[in-house]
């Protein structure tokens, strides 16, 4: 089976790829067939040497396919970029077959923590997941994982067929990022079927994620864990009957606030489970205060046909926007033809995680639902749950909707369950 795939990147124009779902990825171009070849296993050795000699500057990967057996490390203040010609990505990094790496080891990392001014742009990364023994979503073979960096930009990349995260950037629990912005920009990338999150940003601030095209295989397309001052916009996120949420925000039991997050102008469609999932929980008896979540604004998104895939029917996960343990303003969205709920407060129940992942008890959470068009919500086939409602509150003991000017119509069961 051949899949045609379009990749839009502002800096370098249109990219056209053809993917053979077997072991090889071919860029369809006579030029590329002539010039893109496999250099050899262990190419990370000389790439790392070149990066060291260009530390603080820019190193351009030549045209070719580079097979790596170990991690590529980017020094402080350094740009790693690929070769581009006539709108084609000519540089490709691929993980060797049967890499056998431990968990939490990535294909590309920073050399040290708290590095600054890192740019990664304009090349392809192939996670080669079909030729690895490890399972999806368990931290094996992240494609790009940056620990505690500041001033990062990643763009013009094509990441595909991974076992874990496509791009993961994380900081610690010291809350330093609350006063020192991390300044992260991730834009104009195509991420096709990474094994966990397409983009996962954790404990960071001053983040912009935009103009990415993401196809899910594992967890979420874009995920924020306890971040602040973030904009997520103009992204297209879908799935091939795999994965969970298009956009996920999660807040756990810590003192970290999660505030000033704007999600807008995204096209979220044909996702196996949820379009947007706001997920706050307590764990092992510890929770958080409701006022730690402020100014979450979700507006002008298109959320279509989520939870309609066959695989979602064996679980409870389905819906346009599903919320637990969050305050938010949700307005001016089109939420159409989703399964189970259009917008709902609902507790996520997953037997492997247990009851400890409920929203914090004793706290009150409020969502203002304003001027949304919520239509044609259908039932899922999960037999035990309430379903087929445009707007539903299953957590009415401590979660409240404030409804203003919404148009809710065509729901298979009823338009409201509040």
From TrEMBL:
Short name of any one Pfam family annotated for the protein: Disaggr_assoc
Chain ranges of the Disaggregatase-related domain: 258-416
SUPFAM superfamilies linked: Pectin lyase-like
Keywords: Repeat
Keyword Repeat found: yes
InterPro entries attached to this UniProt entry: Disaggr-rel, PbH1, Pectin_lyas_fold, Pectin_lyase_fold/virulence, SCF-Subunits/Alg-Epimerases
Record keyword Electron transport present: no
Protein's name according to its UniProt entry: Disaggregatase-related domain-containing protein
Organism: Methanosarcina acetivorans (strain ATCC 35395 / DSM 2834 / JCM 12185 / C2A)
């Amino acid at each position: 089976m051949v899949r045609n795939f379009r990749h839009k990147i502002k800096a370098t124009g249109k990219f056209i790829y053809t993917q053979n779902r077997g072991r090889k990825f071919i860029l369809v171009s006579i030029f590329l067939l002539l010039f893109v070849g496999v250099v050899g296993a262990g190419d990370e050795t000389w790439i790392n040497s070149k990066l060291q000699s260009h530390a603080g500057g820019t190193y351009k990967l030549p045209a070719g396919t580079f097979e790596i057996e170990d991690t590529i490390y980017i020094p402080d203040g350094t740009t790693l970029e690929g070769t581009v010609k006539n709108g084609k990505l000519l540089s490709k990094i691929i993980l060797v077959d049967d890499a056998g790496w431990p968990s939490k080891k990535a294909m590309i990392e920073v050399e040290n923590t708290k590095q600054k001014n890192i740019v990664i742009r304009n090349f392809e990364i192939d996670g080669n997941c079909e030729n690895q023994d490890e399972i999806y979503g368990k931290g094996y073979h992240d494609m790009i994982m940056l620990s505690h960096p500041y001033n990062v930009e990643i763009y013009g990349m094509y990441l595909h067929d991974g076992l874990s995260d496509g791009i993961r950037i994380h900081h610690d629990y010291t809350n330093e990022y609350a006063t020192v912005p991390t300044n992260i920009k991730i834009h104009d990338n195509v991420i096709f079927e990474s094994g966990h999150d397409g983009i996962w940003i954790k404990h960071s601030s001053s983040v912009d994620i935009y103009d990415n095209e993401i196809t899910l295989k594992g967890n979420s397309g874009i995920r924020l864990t306890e971040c602040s001052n973030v904009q997520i916009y103009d992204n297209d996120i879908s799935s091939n009957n795999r994965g969970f949420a298009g956009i996920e925000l999660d807040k756990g039991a810590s003192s970290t606030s999660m505030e000033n997050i704007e999600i807008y102008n995204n096209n979220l469609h044909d996702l196996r489970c949820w379009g947007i999932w706001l997920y706050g929980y307590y764990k092992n008896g510890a929770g958080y205060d409701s006022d730690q979540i402020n100014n979450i604004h979700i507006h002008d998104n298109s959320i279509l046909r989520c939870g309609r895939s066959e695989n979602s029917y064996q679980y409870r996960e389905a819906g346009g926007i599903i919320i637990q343990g969050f305050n938010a303003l949700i307005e001016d969205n089109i939420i159409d033809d989703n399964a189970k709920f259009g917008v709902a407060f609902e507790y996520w129940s997953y037997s492997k995680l247990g009851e400890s992942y409920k929203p914090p008890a004793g706290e009150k959470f409020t969502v203002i639902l304003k001027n949304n068009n919520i239509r044609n919500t259908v039932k899922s086939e999960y037999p035990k749950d309430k379903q087929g409602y445009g707007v539903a509150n299953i957590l009415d003991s401590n979660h409240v909707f404030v409804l203003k000017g919404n148009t809710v119509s065509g729901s298979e069961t009823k338009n409201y369950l509040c």
